[in-house]
Amino acid sequence: MSQRAQSHDEGVDDVVQSVNADGVDEVAVESNRRLYGGWQWWLFGALAIAYSLFHLVSLNIYPLETWSFRILHIAGALILGYGFYAGTQFAETPQARSSAWLRWLSYAMLLPALYALVRVAMMYQTMNDGAMRIAPEIEAWHFGYPLLLATVAGIVLSWSYRQVRDGLSPADAVLMVCSLAVASYLLVMFNSQLRASTGTPFAPMGISYAAIAGSLMILELTRRVAGLALVIISTIFLVYVFVGPHLPGFLGYPGLSVGRFFSQVYTDAGILGPTTAVSSTYIILFIIFAAFLQASKVGDYFVNFAFAAAGRTRGGPAKVSIFASGLMGMINGTSAGNVVSTGSLTIPLMKKVGYPPRSAGAIEAAASTGGQIMPPIMGAGAFIMAEITGIPYTEIAIAALIPAILYFASVYFMVDFEAARKGMRGMRKDEIPRFSKLVKQVYLFAPIIILIVALFMGYSVIRAGTLATASAAVVSWISPNKMGIRAILKALQLAGTMSIQIIAVCACAGLIVGVIALTGVGARFSSLLLGLAGVSQLLALIFAMCISILLGMGMPTTAAYAVAASVVAPGLIDIGIQPLVAHFFVFYFAVVSAITPPVALASYAAAGISGDNAMGTSVASFKIGLAAFIVPFMFFYSPAMLMEGSWLQILRVGVTATLGIVLLSATVQAWFFGPVKVWQRLVMLIGALCMIYGGIYTDIIGLMIGVGLYAMQRTRNGTSTAAPR
């Protein structure tokens, strides 16, 4: 090879290296996240590793009693959460820390917290000696009151106590001890005959004290890791428990006492119910799986593969965003997290080839949101759906296939038509990774393939997830990022810290689910939907859509779906909709709440990267993801979209709906093999809705409109405008 050619190749390699995905797998560090050093780094790292190993062992080798397992699952997340996440801003320097008196007051609160914990140990001994229950005055004065004092004081002090970023606040140390005391007491009582007394006048008040303290700590941790939206909604539901008996109309109910409600809410009727059941099994397992994939740099490979596959088409980085977000969505549990991981690379590149900042952010937000409905993992919501409905997870994943294709097809054609209308170019060959090099590492897809194959071979989700996790480590041994003992421990540590947010959110959602179940407000909402359906089923569906989006605003997908599934889905089932269709309807709108103004978390995250206005980006992402607001209605009118029906029906509905999505995208972007006029856009919208609807006659009408417009555009514009690429 000549020296000139060699220097050219080196220059190309430099350019390729500059756009190669690197660091996509890195976890963003939140502003209130502590960064320990020294012995504290070792301590909390070991706690995170132990937490991950506890779940792997309990799920695969040594199963625990169900309630005990879930109590430990939540307690571990609370202890880790208060260890890693501060309740207020950090002090910039040691001198800027809070006053000494505040520090000593925080340390003083350790005394009642430790006293409550010691009393639990004494209660355990008393119960072992044959006592049937603990004296009420002991539970109140020697456990309940000290615990509540320490919990409330710890939360309030944590709001004002400022510590440096690498140090643990004493107020949070108090909350960690309180978390341990709550879990210890509940383990003692729920593993005795007193477990059967929950929700009755005979329940020990100590259970209520523990539940109140536990609920407060769950709400506070949720505020730290997920913001105020879910906390506010949870508080409204809790207030309803005691205000509801005084409300008129369908909102009123007979009422529950404090003791009766809280003795039952920290059971499988609430916090330990379906949401925690899923977070303690499927979600934690797939977080560990995702951590192993991240440790082996699979996320970087996914994004580079997307660049190589779609980077050279017109508007290339936007299409890379679609492919990469779909792939990353399989290993990333939140829409906003997906935006941060892939958008930091794709949004600047979209701007580079001509997309305005608003369009770049909106495309990334819409694509990342779609990752939550992408089989086989579909974020965490699908696992909750399987738990609530009793429908096998594999059936849910299959049912999600056509809707996912329609969603990503919609975003793809929106992007393609906008690129064609604005004359945008793709990326040059020397700007993207070499496909020939990436093909040699295609084995990195093996863990995902093993997961899918294991699921469809009949393995349980837990066994399939464990096999996929092990295969991620094995596959890494033939990749450039080999996982040794240190890397495996790092992955387990990463999984422990990654799980904090989703577990806190699921526990907080469980609190809302408990209120709904114990007050019966869900049943009354169902009767309201039934009344609306008597007037119009479409009106009932629109009302259900609005409530699902409203409940999901500002909330992670998992919590949004869990709450909506408790409030809305039963009402849809009561008006005659099949359970799978009803839950998918709710699930879709819970997902797209992330791009629905005015509170659109995914859009806000994308706007932060693109530098555009957050509200403008959310409106633009809403427009790009428009199909997601139409397709759920078609589940009701055409269940074949969820693989319900013969193969011929499913194929027809899938093909015509996809063509309808193309027309819908053309309508929004005002481009269909060339610019289109206003009247053509109206006709295209009619044709799109006809084909998305799924009926035979409407499909024929839609196809006739599509073919007619295609012929008209080709005749007018000739062959100068190529088909979508």
Automatic annotation (TrEMBL):
The chain crosses the membrane at residues 41-61, 67-88, 100-122, 142-161, 173-190, 202-221, 228-251, 271-293, 396-415, 442-462, 500-521, 528-553, 559-577, 584-607, 619-638, 650-672, 684-711. It is found in: Cell inner membrane. The keyword Cell inner membrane applies. Keywords: Cell inner membrane, Cell membrane, Membrane, Transmembrane, Transmembrane helix, Transport. It is a multi-pass membrane protein. The keyword Isomerase does not apply. Coiled coil: none annotated. InterPro entries: DctM, TRAP_DctM-Dct_fused. Residues 214-643 form the TRAP C4-dicarboxylate transport system permease DctM subunit domain. Part of the tripartite ATP-independent periplasmic (TRAP) transport system. This is TRAP transporter permease. The lineage of its organism: Bacteria, Pseudomonadati, Pseudomonadota, Gammaproteobacteria, Oceanospirillales.
